[in-house]
Structures are given as structure tokens and as C-alpha cells.
Amino acid sequence: MSDETGASVDIGDFHARKEFQTRPRVFLVLVDDSAEMPKALRFASLRAKHTGGMVALLHVQDNAEFHHWLGVEALMKEEAREEAEALLQKLSETVNDLCGSYPIIYMREGDRANQLFDLLEEDETISIVVLAASAEKESNDHVISHLTGKGRARMRTPFTIVPGNLSDEEIDALTVS
């Protein structure tokens, strides 16, 4: 088989490209309780709506939070999971309101940056990761710092970083084209 230039094309490559072109974009948002995370959620939801894509939400519970007392570790993990599920339910409603469909949900435990990269390696349907950066000078954007540091070597998926100080109107204007 040959392409439009006459060059030989492997039929497997052709089908892979065609499949990629018909697969909807999946915009993954890393969920946390930060003030700027709703900006990333809005951006991803509206981009999904305007491109015929889907939204996925990833919540990662940090295991380090539970090593205080062994006797209450299981109870603390269960309470944290219930809080995460409630948050994801609320955010799922927001996504549905903004883009017209419910998101894919992922819940994991461990280091946020490592879990994010592990998910990206496991799930090739994720097209773009959308993160929000804090507008504060002294913020702790661990995942963004990881991406621009030693995590660069693991990047195989495009990342969009939404400034946390954008208004909803500014985000809306960015997502229509």
C-alpha cells in the first residue's frame, strides 16, 4: 500500500493512524483540593465539548498521610477514600454540566506524579493532561515541578497547564476554537 506521495506504507501503520484519527480525545485532569484545580476542570471540559472528546479524572491519595498510628491507618484511608469519592461525584456533575457527558474516573494511591505517569503508560487513550498552576509565588505545584524536572524523560503525552488566575470568561474564550 502507498500513501498520497506514493511512498510505501505498512498496512498496520495505516490502520493505527486511521484509528487514532477517529478516536475521541481524552482530556485527563489531576484532581485535588487546590483552589486552581476547577480551572483545569473547566478548560478540559470545554475543550472536550468543542472537540467531541471526553474528560477523565484522576484522584491520587498520598499514602504518606496515613503512617501516624498503625491502629487507625485503615480508618483514615477509608475516610479519605469516601471524601475522594464525594469530590469525584461532585466534579463528575460539573463535567457533565459543561460538556454533556460524565467523565472516566481513576482513583489511585501513592505519589501523585508517579501515579500520573503510570496511568499514562497504561492507558493510551488519554490524549492530553490538563493541570492548573497556582497563581501564588510560593506554591507547591509538585506535579508541575516534576514535569519540568526529572519527569521530562517519562513524558509521552502532551500537557496543558492552565494558569490558576484566569477567569471563567477567559477560559471560555480559550476553549472555543
How are the SSEs placed, and which strands pair?
Blueprint: H1 11-22, E1 26-31, H2 37-51, E2 54-61, H3 73-99, E3 104-109, H4 112-122, E4 128-133, H5 142-148, E5 159-163, H6 168-175
Parallel strand pairs: 1-2, 1-4, 2-3, 4-5
Helix pairs in contact: 2-3, 2-6
Summarize the structure in words:
With 177 residues, the chain is of the alpha/beta class. It is 45% helix and 18% strand. It contains six helices and five strands; from the N terminus they run αβαβαβαβαβα. The chain has a five-stranded parallel β-sheet with strand order 3-2-1-4-5, with helices on both faces. Helix 2 links the parallel strand 1 and strand 2 (54-61). Helix 2 (37-51) packs across helix 3 (73-99). The model has no long low-confidence stretch (mean pLDDT 82).
Contiguous low-pLDDT stretches (5 residues minimum) are none
Helix content: 40-55%
Strand order of the largest sheet: 3-2-1-4-5
End-to-end separation in angstroms reads 35 Å
The structure class reads alpha/beta
Overall average pLDDT: 82
Instruction: List the total number of helices.
Output: 6
Principal-axes geometry comes out as globular
- Please give the largest β-sheet: 5 strands, parallel
How large a portion of the residues is in β-strands, by DSSP E?
A: 15-25%
Radius of gyration: 19 Å
Number of strands: 5
